[in-house]
Amino acid sequence: MGISLQTIYEKFHHCCPKLFISQESRAFVKSARFLTDSCVPDDPEILYVGKVSDLAGILASGQVVNVLCVADEEISAAYRQKSSLNLLLLEKAEDITTVFNEVLDIFYSSGTFTPSYDKLLDAILHTKGIQQLIHTGYELFGNPLCIFEPTGRLIALTEADSVPESYWDELVKDGQLSYETMSCMEYKNIISRTNRSRLPIVIKEPHGLSKISGKIKIGKIIVGYVWLIGAEKELCDADIDIVSFFCHSISLEIQKSRPNKSFMEGVHENLIKELLKGSRKNNKLVNEWIKSLGFNANDSFFVLTIAAKQYDLSTSPLSYPVYLMNLLENSIDGSKGVIYKDHIVVLVRSNPSNPLTDLKLNKLESFLEKYKLKGGMSHDFSDLNDTYYFYRQSLKAIDLGSRENKERGLYLYNDCAIMHFLDICSKKADLFEFCHPSIFLLMNADNKNSTSYLQTLYTYILYNGNQIKSAAALNINRATIIYRIQKIEEIMKLKLCGFNIMHRLYLSFMILRYLNKLPFI
To answer: Which of 460, 445, 475, 468 shows the shortest CA–CA distance to 506?
Structure first.
């Protein structure tokens, strides 16, 4: 008959439980399941475990439902009075995963589960890690299993003898389903049917091995798939229910111990983090990843890094930095982001059909300023194996750019590459030695006569000797700029012409900027 809600109520005496029974004859359960947005609570023999905030939609159902809820918010009286709802409310409880573990322990102690469930439940309660669970699954089913991410990356599989299955061979050999496999109609059909079905589905291959395919979900998100391959014995209908419970067990293990955080983050985050570490991959594997991300081999990339140390970057999928990262991905076409070392790091794609224009950069800077963030953008590059070096460029852009202007939101490495060069040189030599000597004559004249010739020369050089643009930038007329240039040449005792002299003076100004010796900046 199962376990009564009254028995479960008594087991949770330490959580200040409250029990509201509307259907006494149906207040018995045989198994448990997480209550999620995607879960349809339609089985009166299942105890649905969730939070009060997960109860949306329960009121509309006329089916008798048994629910255990953690009180994460005030509960409406409508739930307590609903005629088809048996409700066990825990007013003081730890996190939902701990509660679910205790519920499973109650079922285990009572002997409610079948022997197959007992073995699996024992693995959940007394072992750690997805790999151990999949070994237990192999013992239960007598057939090999594999677990992989939605993008085809292998998570775990059983150490079975050779399995005559093309999918299995790819996972064993490469640790990843190929782009060609994931693009074929047969694979897409399996995944589509699995996603639509509430329970795992049986795939009967006319010229291959049959399999059972089930999805692993956390909330609304599908984080992986379990495939049971009928390689050693025939699959049976009873296997479907056990695979379903196995999927829930894997989901629970992920939430309980999070042994592989990247499992939930998706293959693109795994790839980007590996590249940010400087881990070089073989070109074939990188090309497979590029395809799985929707990129093309001829795309170019930028690394955008955003300092987010002031925010909590722990593990919450609803954390503010993750929210910001999602906004950035949605606003910058063809971008992929991760949270990495107290930063939001976004890999931005650019190509002729979708270039990174000045308009997009201006919108990005407005976004960063709106949220009071500081971002650095690297040079563009084409080989993803070089991501680490350009990530360092983006960090340097923030460091050097914010020294000069703390008010800006976005700093481009292209604007401060020379500053980076000077930053390196400053550790080896006195940078003043590389300045053109005549620049100091002009600085002394300004100090003595309270003139602004240094600023005039700086502007003139920035505009490549264009008198009209320089005059407009300084808000003076052309005659004045001509007069000032003549005076500057007299003071410095040189002619402002020729690439070499203009380049030397430009470098001198960059050194003075780096050393914070320009009074007008």
So the answer is: 460
| Residues 494/500, Cβ–Cβ less than 8 Å | no
Q: Three-class SS string for 309-326? A: CCCCCCCCCCCHHHHHHH
**Phi-psi domain of 339 (left: phi exceeds 0; alpha: psi -120 through 50; beta: other):** beta
Question: What's 11's DSSP letter?
Answer: H
Whether the pTM exceeds 0.85: the reply is: no
How many alpha carbons lie under 13 Å from residue 388 in its C-beta half-sphere?
11
Which residues lie below 8 Å from residue 321, measured CB to CB, with a gap of 6+? 308, 311, 312, 313, 339, 344
- 113-144, pLDDT tens digit by residue? 555 555 665 655 555 578 778 888 888 788 89
Distance (Å, whole) CA 149 – CA 254: 13
- Tokens describing residue 89: 């409310």
End-to-end CA distance of the chain, in Å? 81
The letter for the amino acid at 183 is S
Calculated CA dihedral for residues 446, 449, 451, 457, nearest 10 degrees? -40
CA distance 497 to 490: 14
452-489 pLDDT, tens digit each: 999 999 999 999 999 999 999 999 999 999 999 999 99
Widest pairwise Cα distance in the chain: 104
**Confidence check: pLDDT of 260 > 50:** no
Strands 374-377 and 300-307: antiparallel
Tell me the two tokens of residue 347. Answer: 């890999």
* Geometric angle at alpha carbon 392, from 389 and 398, rounded to 5°: 150
Q: Which of helix, strand or coil describes residue 428? A: coil
- Which residues have CB under 8 Å from 441's CB, separation 6+? 491, 492, 493
The single-letter code of the amino acid at 424 is I
